[in-house]
Amino acid sequence: MTVADLSSDLVWAAATALTVAFVAFTIDLSRLGAKEPEPAVVTDATSDADGDAPVAVAVATPARPVSRKAAGIGISTGWLGTILLLAAIVTRGIAAGRAPWANMYEFTLVGAFVAMAVFLGVSTRRDVRFLGAFVTGLSVLFLAVAQNSFYLDATGVQPALQSYWLVIHVGVAIIATGIFTVAFVLSVVQLLRDSRETGNGFLGHPAWRWLDTTPRPAQLEALSFRLNAVGFVLWTFTIIGGAIWAEHAWGRYWGWDPKEVWSFVVWVVYAAYLHARTTRGWSGRRAAYFVLVGYACVLFNFTGVNLIFNGKHSYSGITTQE
Amino acid sequence: MSDKDLYRPEGIDDAYSHPEPEPSPADGEPTPSTRAAPSGRTGRVAPADDEAPGASAQPQLPALGLQGSLRWVWRQVTSMRVALMLLMLLAVAAVPGSVLPQRPQDPAAVLTYLQDNPGTGEWLDRLGFFDVYASVWFSAIYILLFVSLVGCILPRTKAHLQAVRNRPPRTPRRFDRFPAKAECTSAATPDEVVDAAAQHLRGRVRWLPTFRVDVGTEPADPARGLPERRTVAAERGYLRETGNLLFHLSLLGLLVAVATGQLLHFRGQAIITEGRGFANAVVDYDTFENGSLFSPASLVPFSMTLDSFDAQFAMDAVAFAQSRDFTAHVTVRDPDGTSQQEQIKVNHPIVAGGAKIYLQGNGYAPDITVTDAEGQVAFAGRVPFLPEDTMYTSRGVVKVPDTSAGLDQIGLVGYFLPTAEVDEVGARSTFPQPINPLLVLEVYRGDLGLDEGLPQNVYRLNTDTLTPSVDEEGERVRVLVAPGQTVDLPDGLGTITLAAGDVPRYVALDLRHDPALVWILVFALGALGGLAVSLFTPRRRVWLRVWSEDTPGDEPSARRTVVSVAGLARGDDAGLQGEVDRLVEALPGASTASGPPDAPPTGPGARPRSTTTSPRTDGRARTDRPRKADR
């Protein structure tokens, strides 16, 4: 077995572990949903609304606390899958003899890895286990698509990519994408929960009761913002680094190549999001819609631009029908 | 002093999250602030009592007058809502440029599109959709956006220049409504506590204190039973607005730098074959474009020779024929006569005569000689063939107008194949290196149209008016020529010879000069730095009140020092409680374990010590201990 084959097998192993994590997180959510919402959460919400209520709320544990064992299993297998994925990426780099993010396949692997790493990293500091099902689910999806549709044999790269900027520009772009992914999930949960609280008929169904155990929309929004802020700075750096590299490689720092156009669109949408947050009447729900649009642009910039448009960034290595 | 003095563009919601009325010496009992409504509906709720100037009133249409109308328009343009709308418009307007072919990038594709879609294409062309980023509507959006930016940022800069010298706001009378607070007792004296707190808040770096700190004393108020109290008022995050302004001003600078570069730049392309040279003059370029303020006379007259060109391609099965390395070995002769040998690689441009020289393309330029029917040499020279695929199947045209008098002109169209494989289907290249080079050409005769003086594309031959050479079955004759061979052209038109030996290669070089590059970089990095500072600098205020009182209990003579701390942040700030907790930890002899003071001297109605009302995301009970998560 070659190192490249080992890498591919490790990706499948990681996908398997993450699938187990996904199932475990899903079971956890369904268990949470099966219970009445914890009284502590309800009390907390009202106390904050009314300044005169006792402020420090002792978190009253319900009579029979919901077992979060499944979530624990999800975290553990999530770590396992992430470590396996890291091993897959490292072996891929060894097999190719370069930074392992030079084509779409590798970008997807590393992007899924970063999303998982951000999720696990945040979860060491806060309880964001409710995100597990979404992040692991997306990661499994990414890995499966990568293995089945984007796969390329590990090899070197053409002269245009032989630059340390491959490590910097693309590396930072992937990290930004991974962070945007987790922030996107947070905003989705924020919108779902917000809709449920405001009496959306569909989301009022008991099957969505797990939403009541997630943090309040304002808190989800705050967390999503912090991640998006980091992602936005990294994306800004990606564009600047890309411009410097383009100046080195192509003799112009900006040429409205399709990838550049869409990176610009992504940047502008997230910039609009940051402005919306501080605009009266646009914060909260409306700002969250910007995150959805922004992330859709991120995904399109990665998939659509690589596969549909013919530009200087066509490094997917996948030949499309003319 | 208060936030209300700060300029804020209309519609901006950027205030301290928990507005507390600033205590004035006059008001005895501070009125409770309007607490923000429950934040269930939207993520953040605008504080009701913090209207930006002018934001409250709906525009009153009558009685505005001209001046009023202009002011109203200006206020709208510089408002956050309009900026937001323009940003979204900008994103939408940028998209067509990635979908439709663009003239500056690919003029040929635009022509093809226009031919394929005559009706819609014409309208799209009229509306500027084939040069989106120079179109009126795209320019209008970003210029309006920058106008909005200037109108918003300049007043803010002025306000910030004043605000940046402000002292922290006075210590509020009551701490109980702040989102983060802590209380403790200390064995140290109030003065020691205040000194330690001030030192901790200022931080270690003397020239860039974390907090701006004011220490004060509140006199005793026997009427209300209050002892003398020491206070510390501290504020951090002045740099947040600085970063915000730096970011926006850098964007402005970036726009100016890019525009300046457009005016002063030049860009030329030259195709040079191995062993041949190039002189840096406009006539020697194949294409040359320059900004309107660039003077072609300022080109530095250096010259350059392409000594050799190396290309390497992968031989392994995984990435067969993928390019691996291109190196152009050149000799550059400066105007002063000195010369040096250099290498140009992809990603490694060289600098000569103030211009950067990039290796942008390469291919083969076979050395072709054509003799006409009378045996006269009608054409001799190297003809660049443009690669069309990764195997360097290269297309080229040989135009032979200079045939002997009375003879038809000759046009040859076809392919150069570095590693030719010829079978009944046709001829194709199977590897980019010249292992088995072969020319495959179709032959035309007639008037090439070169004498009319109209410029023609040297890589295209208009065959509409020409007569092709065909065989008995009416198929076009294909002439195959290998190096060293001389082959008769069909119909007795003459002969064609491909020179023996290695087929010369050519490189396509881009020479580019843009004096604004360094400024573009400076402003881009300024924007990045400003952005990071503005997004990651917490804006926090911390107040501390310290007083000495009798220890409750059996020993009436014992005194203890009581410390009360409150924190306030602008926007969501999960780290606020951590800031307060760290401050308490840094106080000398502090003990949070001891009971709360019996009678907090902030007046009646003060509640027992509470830990926090700061946003919680984990749903777990909080402890008094500062948690890592908060840092």
| Order of SSEs of chain A | HHHHHHHHHH
Average predicted local confidence, pLDDT of chain A: 85
Which stretches of chain B are low in confidence, meaning pLDDT under 50 for 5 or more residues running? 1-5, 18-57, 593-631
Radius of gyration over C-alpha positions of chain A, nearest whole angstrom: 21 Å
Find the biggest chain interface.
A-B, 88 and 85 residues
> What about the largest sheet of chain A?
none
Class computed from helices, strands and strand pairing of chain A: mainly alpha
Shape of chain A: globular
Kindly report how far apart the N and C termini of chain A lie. 36 Å
- Tell me the count of domains of chain A: 2
Key attributes of the depicted protein:
heterodimer, A: 322 residues, Four Helix Bundle (Hemerythrin (Met), subunit A), 2 domains, B: 631 residues, alpha+beta, 6-stranded antiparallel beta sheet, 10 helices, 27% strand, disordered N terminus, disordered C terminus
Describe the protein.
The complex is a heterodimer of chains A (322) and B (631). Residues 37-62 of chain A have low confidence and may be disordered. Chain A has 2 domains: 1-50 and 68-157, Four Helix Bundle (Hemerythrin (Met), subunit A) (Up-down Bundle), CATH 1.20.120; 162-322, no CATH class. With 322 residues, chain A is mainly α. In chain A, helix 1 runs antiparallel to helix 5 (132-150). Chain A has 10 helices and no strands. By secondary structure, chain B is of the alpha+beta class. Chain B folds into 4 domains: 66-166, no CATH class; 180-236 and 538-630, no CATH class; 249-364 and 508-524, no CATH class; 367-503. Chain B contains 10 helices and 27 strands. In chain B, strands 2-3-25-26-1-27 form a 6-stranded antiparallel sheet, covered by helices on one side. In chain B, strands 14, 15, 16, 19, 20 and 21 form a 6-stranded antiparallel sheet that branches. In chain B, helix 4 crosses helix 5 and helix 8 runs antiparallel to helix 9. Chain B starts with 64 loop residues before the first helix and ends in a 40-residue tail after the last strand. Chains A and B meet through helix 2, helix 6, helix 7, helix 8 and helix 9 of A and helix 2, helix 3, strand 8, strand 11 and helix 9 of B.
